[in-house]
Write a structure and sequence with these properties.
2 copies of one chain form a homodimer. Chain A is α/β, with parallel strands linked by helices. Chain A is 44% helix and 9% strand.
Chain lengths: 238, 238
């Protein structure tokens, strides 16, 4: 059994892909909505296309082309851009609003809730996500995620991977950056957290983009821990 | 049985006095610390004196005499001011820091946890307190308060009763002010919330200042609901 590592004073979790299955949740929500409207399409491709619009939309805010926009608003802009090409151009306002709320009701990975329940007994657990505060709160309620508190990039007016998010999370929790560990499926997020002084745990999510999707590359030793589930994370933090 | 009222989309709770017993908690913490140091004093009077410094300290920040200061910092400033007159002048740094953390470990009122557990099944429940974010998070963990999220005045850079706090809480939760209800023991807090467009529920806490303490005055009809516990609040919201 691998050695355990010192317990951080707090754990901050990336959410989309790390804690919840956005691909499966969005795909299922689109398929259900489409069935009710008699529409056909490739909802796995639709989910990945929707997600692919996310980083470029945040970059438009970062460059000042858009004012600060909660992720709910960015998701809706992207949906309106891609709807036509996925056969959803005929959806009315109410149907689009409902589909957009799929991001509030994403399912946790099977290990998420048992892992978080154990980790919550060990230390303080929070979100640190680009999802807006109300989205993260609704998601936690729906999925039974037992966070001690909700921290969103919205609180800092900066999206990850801007350093303000990692430092701001430590400041709100009244811990030093080195007493906070980011848990994330995405190496880019972890690298930015490490540059801001945080500890890092990489959780591998091979199904993030659906069956057969690619896993992001990283170097051996880049992160303090590499685990395959939040239950394994609880085992490894002593 | 009184009629039930429409359920708000979210309930925001004042914390000190409304949800937790600051008087009993601080008195007990001071008494325990004093016993270990062989000191004697009137710890009920000490608790009330400490609390009495709170509003004037926030006013100093509001007037710009002090920079923005988390409540942990204000509590400590007040403690250092009143320690001598309560026979605690000899406490060293470690003992003062420990006593200051009494505000993180305040006990809930007997109806608090069962009331919040029921209300959480009915709607979204959050703190809306001048306590800093890390204090409220630690308190929830210690006392088992099942918040959906933690909202602190710290997130807005304004203390209650500034309107920015009430409006900011509604904005973070993505609800209209009229869809949010403040639950508080203090009429001044409720009046400011009402002026900002929120719904209001007054919970009476006759023991807030200890046995024999005064209850704040208010007019009949000032608030939408007046209850004696959070369990009664759950009964009254349909």
């Amino acid at each position: 059994m691998p050695a355990t590592l010192p317990l951080p004073r707090a754990l901050a979790f990336d959410v989309f892909g790390t804690v919840v299955d956005w691909h499966g949740g969005v795909r299922a929500a689109a398929a259900a909505l489409a069935a009710r409207h008699g529409l056909h399409g490739d909802w796995a491709a639709f989910a990945n296309d929707w997600r692919a619009g996310y980083a470029p939309a945040m970059d438009r805010v970062r460059r000042g082309e858009l004012p600060w926009t909660p992720i709910d608003g960015l998701h809706r802009m992207i949906l309106d851009t891609i709807a036509e090409r996925h056969g959803l151009g005929g959806l009315d306002e109410a149907a689009r609003a409902e589909l957009n709320r799929a991001w509030h009701r994403l399912p946790p990975w099977p290990d998420t809730v048992p892992g978080l329940q154990r980790l919550k007994r060990q230390t303080t657990i929070t979100t640190l996500s680009n999802g807006n505060f109300s989205l993260l709160t609704a998601m936690a309620k729906h999925a039974g995620l037992p966070w001690d508190c909700i921290v969103s990039a919205e609180l800092f007016g900066h999206y990850k991977p801007d350093p303000e998010c990692y430092r701001g999370c430590a400041r709100l929790l009244d811990v030093a950056p080195g007493e906070l560990m980011l848990v994330a499926a995405h190496p880019s997020d972890l690298r930015a957290a490490r540059a801001a002084g945080l500890r890092t745990a990489h959780v591998r999510r091979p199904l993030e983009y659906g069956p057969g999707g690619a896993m992001p590359a990283f170097e051996a030793g880049e992160f303090e821990l590499v685990v395959d589930s939040l239950v394994e994370l609880a085992d490894r933090l002593g």
